[in-house]
Amino acid sequence: MKSEIVEQCLRQGQVEFEYLESVPLAQIDKRSSLQNQARTRMPDAAVGIIKDLVDSYVVDKKAGCRFPALVGRMPREGSKYILMDGNQRLLASEEAGEKTTDLYWVKSDDPSTIARLTWTLNNLNGERLTPEECLEHAASFVEQFNCKLADAAAEWKVGVRTLRRHLDLRCLYRILEGKRVKITKALTPDMILRAAALRAMGEDLFVKACRLIAEYGLNAADLDDLLQRIRLAETAAAKEQILHDYAHSDGAKKRRAQTKGGKVSFRAGSARQQHWKALNKLYRLYAKHHTDVLIQPSEEDWEEGARMADMIRSRLNGMFGPLPGSNSEAG
Questions:
Q1: Which of 14, 83, 166, 322 is buried deepest, with most CB atoms within 10 A?
Q2: What is the spatial distance between Cα 105 and Cα 79, in angstroms, rounded to a whole number?
Q3: Residue 251 lies in a domain
Q4: How many angstroms separate the CA atoms of 317 and 323, rounded?
Q5: Helices (H), the chain
Q6: CA–centroid distance for 104 within its chain
Q7: Range of the domain at 97
Q8: Which residues have C-beta within 8 Å of that of residue 59, sequence separation ≥ 6?
Q9: Whole-angstrom Cα distance, residue 121 to residue 86?
Q10: pLDDT band for position 262 (cuts 50, 70, 90)
């Protein structure tokens, strides 16, 4: 039957369409219809079918219930229709023994328009798009249809910063795929984005760093230390040598053994990992500021700072033993 909601959607999409009261099911290209691009998370077309929903539609159809018309396009004159909306209803019609169906024929061959309407109609009549699918569609609008970032984000109701990050990752993953870098558990999106800072110094550096992360299981602290040393190196050869030396170091071998070649990642929230990150960050801060003037607490924070320092000093002495020349050793 006709649907005012569908017609309103098509009118808003500014496309020409025609309501066809009786279309033979044989004139619908079921295979191509099942592969419409609305469900990005379903690589296998069969996964996009919700069997329980189809079964319930069959029962309703046999009871005489009427459903909104399908929506389809015709890629070329005389070809079969490819559905933009209504795959579940199509299968239910077949199982209910129907031979024909009504259909809205969308007369457009513009890829951007077809994509937008397909996704919009599926969100109206089908299973709602997940946040991940909305993000994929927004990225496709930017990459395939040259849509502005802010416009694509608004169209699919995703954050501009989230979309920009997603687009950056898509680009970086394509680079790594082209260089045959294996994506292991250690090579997380966050680690890839951290390593992307090296692209300004040369794409090869970025790829080599990602390969190290993937194969040796480097964590954020390891990578930050490498990045700092690479930035300080003056020549491209010296920068590459830092990565080469690390790959052959005892520390790298230890990390590779701990993570089973990057296949097992440290739990990001573990107390040990948090403690190591804090020590590493404090070490780098002290290394950067050789005097205490710029980093010492303000007057109002001095007493609290002294209390925290005393507790930290006590715990570290207990963990690593008193350092030569420390008060603990002298006492």
A1: 83
A2: 13
A3: no
A4: 8
A5: 4-12, 30-34, 51-62, 87-95, 111-125, 131-145, 149-156, 160-178, 189-195, 203-216, 220-232, 236-247, 250-258, 271-288, 302-320, 327-330
A6: 35
A7: 4-129
A8: none
A9: 9
A10: low
Average pLDDT over residues 78-106: 94
Q: What CATH number does residue 47 fall under?
A: 3.90.1530.10
Helices 203-216 & 236-247 angle (0-180, nearest 10): 10
* Structure confidence by residue, pLDDT tens digits, 6-47: 898 899 889 999 999 999 999 999 988 887 655 544 444 444
Residues 33 and 90 in one domain: yes
**Domain identity same for 114 and 150:** no
Indicate if 151 and 84 belong to the same structural domain.
Answer: no
Residue 262 region, left (φ>0) first, then alpha (ψ -120 to 50), else beta? left
Which CATH number characterizes residue 145's domain?
1.10.10
User: Which of 280, 136, 268 is CA-nearest to residue 191?
Assistant: 268
Q: What is the pTM of this model?
A: 0.57
Give the whole-angstrom CA distance, residue 7 versus residue 1.
12
Reference 27, options 96, 79, 63; nearest CA is 79
Backbone angles phi, psi at 110, to 5 degrees: -80, 120
Q: What average pLDDT is seen over the chain?
A: 85
Mean pLDDT of 235-260: 89
Whether residue 163 has pLDDT greater than 90:
yes
Say whether 325 sits in a helix, a strand or coil: coil
Q: Say if strands 100-107 and 16-24 run parallel, antiparallel, or are unpaired.
A: antiparallel
Same-domain check for residues 86 and 151:
no
